[in-house]
Design brief:
By secondary structure, the chain is α+β, with helices and mostly antiparallel strands. The protein is 30% helix and 25% strand. A six-stranded mixed beta sheet has the order 1-2-8-3-9-19, with helices on both faces. It has a four-stranded antiparallel beta sheet with strand order 13-15-11-16. It has a three-stranded antiparallel beta sheet with strand order 4-5-20.
Length: 375
């Protein structure tokens, strides 16, 4: 592998700079998906032609999600999905350069989505093709792995859309059994991540004239409920993630100074652990308050890698540092065991002047290949 690592890194950096020139904010990924789909079809076709007599690599597209796998899956093996996402957040207004004109400086690639999640995308692509036998301009037999290998590049991750990973899980066959979710973790293995549950609270009162103190003040009901939620303690503590985190983040009430408000609304941001599902949390909190609580989405669950799974065994065998992820990802949308591991630093994500180091991409390509070969 060392003989080819420099060439793979060169390919990855070129592909990354090409991707970053194409805006791909969540729900607007079509042009970047077109670019990657054509690129990967051409690359797979070339490898298929070189590997005569070996089952082809199949390239599929579901909406703006792109899937690659070799058409020889063994029923005796688990199927491992390499996954990263092709969409980005909208650029911060404080960028000091055009976020869609990427450039390289001092060993770093700058541009919107370079760190989250372009570095993982291009590193996983290089690892996938290497393990399938691509060697620069030549080809050899695919590696004899203990897993079937699938590459899935998804859309709509940043906004948890229904046409991203959720669409893949619902509709695509063959399905994987486990996954490596590519996100910026410094190639440490995130073995758990919190879920996300957003609740809209609505307190109902009765309007009246403020001077006569008429009506029922919805603001006071909401404030009382907010205080209750702020001080609520969930009984079950996660050995991996600690307590469920709950924060009230928005509040809205009143129309004019002299009218008792008939309605007050607030938003609660909750980061669950594996000790509770989202339905349980909603039920527990609703019993504590007078306001009506409505979940925006009950599907964004917390995730944890099962002890004893071969992904965890491989992490332990290779001595990879583990972490608990503070951020959500497509992991919360899949029903299979996973770890989250990719190049870059989560602290750079969603900020102006985003970048990833070329060395991080090089290390990630090597890291993915070694990890999969060690399963």
């Amino acid at each position: 592998m060392e003989d080819f690592l420099q060439g793979m890194t060169y390919n990855a950096v070129n592909l990354l700079t090409g991707m970053l020139q194409i805006p791909s904010c969540s729900f607007e990924e079509e042009e970047r998906a077109d670019f990657l789909y054509e690129y990967l079809k051409e690359r797979a076709l070339k490898l298929n032609m070189q590997q005569k007599g070996i089952p082809d690599i199949i390239v599929c597209r579901v909406v703006n999600n792109i899937i690659l796998y070799r058409d020889n899956f063994s029923a005796e093996k688990q199927t491992l999905m390499l996954n990263s996402h092709i969409d980005t957040v909208t650029p911060a207004p404080t960028y000091s350069f055009d976020p869609f004109v990427p450039f390289e400086k001092d060993g770093c690639i700058y541009g919107l989505g370079s760190n989250d999640d372009g570095g993982s995308v291009v590193s996983q692509i290089e690892a996938f093709f290497y393990l399938n036998g691509e060697r620069d301009n030549d080809a050899v037999a695919p590696e004899n792995l203990n897993v079937n290998l699938m590459l899935v590049l998804t859309a709509e991750e940043e906004r948890s859309g229904s046409n991203g990973m959720a669409r893949f899980v619902e509709t695509f066959e063959p399905k994987p059994n486990c996954a490596i979710i590519g996100e910026p973790t410094g190639m440490q293995a995130a073995i758990a991540e919190r879920g996300l549950l957003v609740l809209d609270g609505t307190a109902e009162g009765v309007s009246g004239h403020a001077a006569r103190n008429e009506g029922v003040n919805a603001l006071y009901i909401a404030l009382e409920d907010i205080n209750t939620l702020r001080n609520y303690k969930f009984e079950k503590n996660s050995p991996l993630m600690g307590d469920v985190k709950l924060t009230v983040t928005q509040f809205n009430c009143g129309t004019t100074h002299n009218v008792i408000p008939a309605q007050a609304t607030f938003v609660v941001d909750i980061r669950p652990t594996e000790q509770y599902n989202n339905e349980e949390i909603l039920d527990l909190l609703q019993k504590q308050v007078k306001s009506t609580l409505a979940a925006r989405n009950l599907k964004n669950r917390s995730s944890a890698t099962p002890q004893g799974h071969f992904l965890m065994e491989t992490v332990d065998k290779m001595g990879i540092v583990t972490q608990i992820s503070a951020t959500t990802s497509d992991w919360m949308k899949i029903p299979w065991p996973a770890i989250k591991m990719g190049p870059g630093d989560s602290a750079r994500s969603h900020k102006a002047d985003e970048f990833i180091m070329v060395q991080e991409i090089k290390d990630a390509i090597k890291g993915y290949i070694n990890f999969i070969k060690n399963i």
